[in-house]
Amino acid sequence: MKFADLLLLPQTATGRIDQEAARDALPDMPYDVLEQVIVDHGANDDFQRQYGHLDLEVIGWELRRTEASALIAATVFNDFAPWFESVARRTRHVLNAGWRCIDTREAVVDHWREHLTWIRAPVFLQVGPGGSAATLHLVEGHTRLAVLRGLVDLRVVKPESTHEAWIGVPRSL
After folding, report:
1. Segments making up each domain of the chain, as ranges
2. Taking CA 2 as the corner, what is the angle to CA 46 and CA 31, rounded to the nearest 5 degrees?
């Protein structure tokens, strides 16, 4: 099943892919990836433009602890780059204004302050052989990754710290 085929699945009134239909179509995909990418963004024009050609059935998903330096080196979809950069800049205020500058949701702020990582693992694709930083591409979690990058730049989070991330590896790699 290609990402473009998701448009053939039933959608909710809010334009999301129906969760049960997505689960039936992709029974081997981890629920967290299914919800974050397929259900939330399967009918999104930006995602369709970027991933429409992607064969979802040839990707194996792994939840990995990965170094921050490798994660923040991942490529980001060009259309999302301005948002990503604005969030990363927002974190500059953590040291003098406190943690609330990173997000408006109290649970998110509290989790970052206490654990120096995200609540939910973002989703990446491995786009080249090996596991080097240059081979990762961020699919979902732009705000989370941008906060991490900003905190690494500030040296609040160490580049060698590890964080959970979903990594999709095409079986051909």
Report:
1. 3-54, 60-170
2. 80
